[in-house]
## 1
Amino acid sequence: MTLTAGHRPSSSTPTPTPTPTPTTGGLVDVLQEGLVAPICLTWELTYGCNLACVHCLSSSGRRDPRELDTAQCTALIDEFAAMGVFYLNVGGGEPTIRPDFWRIVDHALDRGVGMKFSTNGSRIDATRARWIVARPYLDVQVSLDGATAAVNDAVRGQGSYATAIRALENLAEAGARDVKISVVCTRDNIGQLDDFALIAQRYSAMLRLTRLRPSGRGATSWHALHPRPEQQRELYDWLLRAGDRVLTGDSFFHLSGFGQPLPGLNLCGAGRVVCLVDPVGDVYACPFAIHEHFLAGNVVAAGFAAIWRDSPTFTALRVADGGTCTACPSFSTCRGGCRAAKFFTGLPEDGPDPECVRADRTPTGAGAVPVAIGPRPVPDKDHSRGSARACADHPLAGWTPPTAGFEVAFPGAAATTTGGASRR
Ligand code: SF4
Ligand code: SF4
């Protein structure tokens, strides 16, 4: 993919007036105007999941009956390939519960589009681990939110630690190197960072630390789980000391307010270099921004390239960062922090991050810069199980598989889907 700045407000789109803002020069100024294709395209293949993590950013559990089918998925991959997307981050829900998941993987790899998929590990047995290792442009990321079963299972559910560790063992035994262990940092696991590093070392894996965002079910669990101010400092110091083999993406640039910037993208990439395609083909500015406010269009109706290029939602995000934070000495590296975190905590998008680390901390966590706190938006998508609906207990209930002759079993689920029908 060519890293070319896209100066692309469409003729039909009102062009927002940029707030005068200090420029930093270089890559960040280029990236904030958007690229011809996203660097980080997250694609959630299903909202179905056999777990029910309390902080799930997509409130997954039940599949959506409008989920893109196999033909739509492969056509979308062809479009990604044609526009130069070279890498997909695939997630869900639990993507491997789709019986066509492995075919979709192979289709992407055949088209020259690399893939990393996120999984809770429940379907990575020894055979599947060898299948994965045999594909050089396929990467896998196993979620683990505690270095002990007690801490992990409190968030991800009973038995999920053992499941993830078993998947890591299978992958290591198959010869996988640099599998990613994805950790959402919470106030319960910040004290386990060294232990996570040891687990990664044990399985020849890499640690990937992610910020907890208040989106999806995380909107509800945010106040109980997001790190305390002193833990933000502990995390920052740990990343400076031991983070050279740790991936963080754009998770922690708001911590730059402590002083020395951390490696990684110091910019909110929403709609600029990052976006999300959800299981029904809706395109959002970022995986943590699944809300009408950030909705840019639907790939079935419009195709992905046109949405990425011309959507008014994305055009509005591709202006210079501005607002009250421009007065902050850390603005050139923090730039006001995460838009999704601000939006879902009711803070103005041109104000400071809810976990701003500068100065005294108000009850919202936003300190040095005065902010007007608005009503907290309620996440408008919820696929959680537990309702009285027919599909509440089984992520594939009601779904007709595309072909007969396969069987999907779920650990802990009292249902099996087989040969074109769902049964309980
Ligand atoms: S909204 Fe937050 S999570 Fe999304 S791209 Fe911006 S900084 Fe990253
Ligand atoms: S005031 Fe704004 S730019 Fe400064 S550290 Fe806080 S969020 Fe970042």
## 2
Amino acid sequence: MIRLYCFPRSGNSREVKLALAEKNIPFEAVDVHQKDFNKEDPEFRKASLQGKVPAIIDGDVYMSEAYAINEYLEKKYPEKPLLPKDETTRAKIREWVALYDKRLVLRIGLLVIECLLKPKDQQKEETKTKLRGEIASGMKEVDALLAGKDYIFGDYSLADIAITPHIAALPILGTAIPADLKNMTAWLTRIQTRPSFQKSAL
Ligand SMILES: N[C@@H](CCC(=O)N[C@@H](CS)C(=O)NCC(=O)O)C(=O)O
């Protein structure tokens, strides 16, 4: 069975949990934040050189990086596809995910640090406001992409999965999808009604 190194509030881990849930692939979750977990565990470090989650072991395959893991799952378990068949569109989706990893996911990660991880007396309102503005600009672009479509590339895909957990976490960071972004608001509701959304919240 696939072993997934993760922790419950890790958005990047949830990307992999979403793909596993969509494809109904059983897995064993190893919480790297549990008290007795050794972060230097050689099996874990073989899966993730940097000691980051998500990381998986599947037989003799050791991997980290959410999108790389999800592409691997797609190749090994093509039933219930989460990517189109043709390589050009796959490459476009990969490129889009890398771009929005910078435009959205990275900035949401910085907002997590500023709002939740830094001690209150070191948090800067100015930084939070700047990040919230940049995140809103990124979401405006996603909203435009979603015009006339249910999902970013038409069908539900690894592109939607790559940003879903991070967008869903915005309310705990004092922000949300702006009310005028109707396409994106409908998109999130659509995703939240998929059974994989609840299953991946663990
Ligand atoms: N680019 C990586 C990011 C992985 C990452 O930053 N994971 C965080 C949790 S969401 C982590 O392991 N943080 C612990 C640490 O940095 O030590 C991916 O997409 O998987």
